[in-house]
Amino acid sequence: MIGANEISDRTELRALVDAYASAVDTRDTARFLSLFVPDARLTIHQPGATTPVTFTGHDELPGALEPLSAYRATMHLMANHTCELAADSARGETYCLAHHLRPSGDGWEDLVMVIRYGDRYVRPEDKWRFAARDVRIEWTELRPASVEPLSF
User: Starting at the edge strand that comes first in sequence, how are the strands of the sheet with 107-122 ordered?
Assistant: First the structure.
């Protein structure tokens, strides 16, 4: 039987995952950093790349947001969050469809990334934070997109 503390922890961890998506999509660097412990690590693995890109600590983590300036907008849709709890630490996995709107020729395109996050969480001072986040881009696809008003 799941206890009240476990339900609360799972809810807080899911809120952390969702806050990450929101901070990334709004390019809110201060909020983004607040989700990580000071010595946290974020590693990005791309399909076909032999070496991942890693950002360690609050000094380097904002660099993970810099490539997003190439996009007019992004939207990270988080799903399938699972986690294993152990007192004040946990491990988790989250699926994500990340949309990246950018110019293409005379129009727009949506670069969609299928992402799997592997996380290590810690709870210093009664608030869950990321200790490590592995961003695994499984595959990508391009879709035509429009920013024109819809006629209703």
Answer: 53-56, 36-45, 129-145, 107-122, 89-104, 73-86
Element (H, E) at 102: strand 89-104
pLDDT over 90, % of the chain: 94
Rounded Cα distance, 58 and 7, in Å? 30
| Cα separation, 72 vs 68, whole angstroms | 9
Given pLDDT bands bounded at 50, 70 and 90, which one contains residue 3?
low
Residue type, 62: P
- Which alpha helices (DSSP H) does the chain contain, by range? 4-26, 29-34, 57-60
DSSP one-letter code for 72: S
User: Measured between alpha carbons, how far is 149 from 71 in angstroms, rounded to an integer?
Assistant: 19
Q: How far apart are CA 22 and CA 119, in angstroms?
A: 17
Dump pLDDT digits (tens) for 59-80: 999 999 999 999 999 999 999 9
